[in-house]
Amino acid sequence: MRIISGKLKGKKILFLKSSTTRPLKDSVKESIFNIISHSNLLNINLTSSSILDLYSGIGSFGLECVSRGVKEVIFVEKNKAAAEVLISNLVKLKINNNAKVIVNDVKQFLNSKNSKKFDIIFLDPPYKDDDYLQNLDLIKQYKYFKKNHVVIIHRERITNDDFKGILEPVITKHYGRSKIIIGRFSL
After folding, report:
1. DSSP alpha helices (H): ranges in the chain?
2. Does the global pTM surpass 0.85?
3. Is residue 79 assigned to a domain?
4. Cα dihedral sign for 82, 102, 29, 64?
């Protein structure tokens, strides 16, 4: 795996060969960043953004964000092996000053009621995890987002998630077996 754009373009990143993690494909990452940068439906300035990367795994999305010049990324991953690979990537790429890794369950992290607000919240839960909707509701309840924000969710194409009362999907794109849902919290 490699960083696909920005100041670290072409740099290799370590990844974990595991049945419990699945790094975001490069083509999907590139599409997400194109949507963030060029969609008239979103108004996000990537370089001044704070990112919350939940279920981050080895952090391929957040690492790409740092390469593209975001202000900061907070990674939350409960799998210790994946978090260790993520930390190794941050050190190897010399970008650990722009990031913080929290090894914890997403729900426990959210219930800590951190006062930080984020411009972009990225969720990449395991495909079989339906509890992430409760975590999405916690993000909304505790207002972990700035007024102008975007939520990006990576899911399996066949999932039929009910976001009513939580999230207003703005864009949904399909890529092979996966889909990306981009939206905002309904206020």
Report:
1. 26-38, 60-67, 80-92, 106-111, 132-141
2. yes
3. yes
4. negative
